């Protein structure tokens, strides 16, 4: 009798192991501790979407309970439909979710989570770094130093100070507020921002709510940190670029499609604005023959605003815990209500 009970116990454990739901991790560089956490509850398959064909991706998603992905993982209706009714959650390790077809998610009843607040500080740090690098011509000066272009001249490689300047933040959510707090230490003369309504925290920092057209016209430095959607696509368009000051510096850490890149390139070629710092662009990766690559008043980063070890690790852990929360039929942190 005892032997039979032991056998049944082991058999039940074996069945539980065999019936673990399947989870697809759509990238290869995930911390081991996160994979170990997921393996406790899921049958985990790691398959990097980056260099895979659409056919390979569609085969991999079939029958999965969840997909652990990031900002460069395109989640469209074909993928969601092909996964089948087993698909319950897609959790993206990113602030934005413009790479996900929200209509299809709602249609097929799949829950979506994202990492909204975790990366705000890291992104704000990168924004300030990009602003200084562009305004003070740091990359240009570094290149001159390395190519025997160093000149002993009083005004050589002079850029503009942030102190006493007008800074405008397009989109003042968590990231925008964090940027504003850091800008406060630079003794700027005025902080402008756009938002659906007045933000008490921004007001406390001396911020003034204005329209997007007022902001681009008055600002010496313009920081784009708004989420991408149908209303904000090309929010920095040809007409608004034309309103900018001739020395204005534009920094974008949101999404590439927030700016009319063709109009931006024209303005830079004609020296109608001072410079640009971009962590995001269109497309990504940017082709090596793109005009932005050759311009001295442009600083480009490969979409690394949140790329601190601590931040990315925390984002991955929270993403894993939230997928487990769906399995347990509990609420996720930062779940998008579709």
Question: Can you characterise this structure?
Answer:
This protein is of the alpha/beta class. It folds into two domains: 22-114 and 309-336, NAD(P)-binding Rossmann-like Domain (Rossmann fold, 3-Layer(aba) Sandwich), CATH 3.40.50; 119-300, Rossmann fold (3-Layer(aba) Sandwich), CATH 3.40.50.720. It is 38% helix and 14% strand. It is built from 13 helices and 13 strands. The protein has helices spanning 2-18, 32-39, 54-61, 77-83, 102-107, 120-135, 138-146, 174-183, 200-204, 212-218, 238-243, 261-269, 309-327; strands spanning 22-25, 43-46, 66-69, 89-92, 111-113, 166-170, 190-194, 207-209, 221-224, 249-252, 275-278, 298-300, 335-336. The protein has a seven-stranded parallel sheet with strand order 8-7-6-9-10-11-12, sandwiched between helices. A six-stranded mixed sheet has the order 2-1-3-4-5-13, covered by helices on one side. Helix 2 (32-39) runs parallel beside helix 13 (309-327), helix 3 packs parallel to helix 4 (77-83) and helix 6 packs across helix 8 (174-183). The protein is elongated. The termini are far apart. Residues 1-17 have low confidence and may be disordered. GO terms for molecular function: glyoxylate reductase (NADPH) activity; hydroxypyruvate reductase (NADH) activity; NAD binding. This is Glyoxylate reductase/hydroxypyruvate reductase. Residues 27-336 form the D-isomer specific 2-hydroxyacid dehydrogenase catalytic domain. InterPro entries: D-isomer_2-hydroxyacid_DH, D-isomer_2_OHA_DH_cat_dom, D-isomer_DH_CS1, D-isomer_DH_NAD-bd, NAD(P)-bd_dom_sf. It comes from Aphis craccivora.
């Amino acid at each position: 009798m005892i032997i039979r009970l032991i056998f049944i116990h082991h058999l039940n454990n074996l069945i539980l192991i065999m019936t673990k739901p399947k989870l697809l991790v759509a990238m290869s560089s995930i911390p081991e501790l996160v994979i170990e956490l997921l393996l406790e509850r899921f049958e985990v398959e790691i398959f990097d979407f980056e260099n895979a064909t659409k056919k390979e991706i569609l085969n991999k998603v079939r029958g999965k309970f969840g997909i652990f992905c990031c900002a460069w993982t395109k989640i469209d209706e074909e993928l969601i439909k092909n996964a089948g009714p087993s698909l319950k959650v897609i959790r993206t390790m990113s602030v934005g979710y413009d790479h996900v077809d929200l209509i299809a998610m709602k249609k097929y009843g799949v829950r979506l989570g994202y990492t909204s607040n975790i990366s705000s500080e890291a992104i704000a740090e990168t924004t300030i770094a990009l602003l200084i690098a562009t305004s003070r011509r740091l990359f240009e000066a570094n290149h001159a130093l390395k190519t025997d272009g160093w000149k002993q001249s009083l005004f050589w490689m002079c850029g503009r100070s942030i102190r006493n300047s007008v800074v405008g933040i397009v989109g003042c959510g968590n990231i925008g507020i964090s940027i504003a707090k850091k800008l406060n230490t630079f003794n700027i003369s005025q902080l402008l921002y756009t938002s659906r309504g007045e933000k008490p925290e921004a007001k406390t920092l001396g911020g003034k709510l204005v329209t997007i057209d007022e902001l681009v016209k008055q600002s010496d430095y313009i920081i784009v940190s708004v989420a991408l959607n149908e209303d904000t696509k090309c929010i920095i368009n040809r007409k608004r670029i034309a309103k900018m000051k001739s020395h204005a510096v534009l920094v974008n850490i949101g999404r590439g499609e927030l700016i009319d890149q063709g109009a931006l390139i024209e303005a830079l070629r004609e020296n109608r604005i001072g410079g640009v710092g971009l962590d995001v662009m269109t497309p990504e990766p940017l082709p090596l023959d793109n005009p932005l690559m050759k311009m001295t008043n442009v600083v480009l980063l490969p979409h690394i605003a949140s790329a601190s070890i601590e931040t990315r690790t925390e984002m991955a852990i929270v993403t894993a815990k939230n997928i487990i929360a769906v399995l347990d039929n509990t609420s996720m942190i930062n779940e998008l209500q579709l």
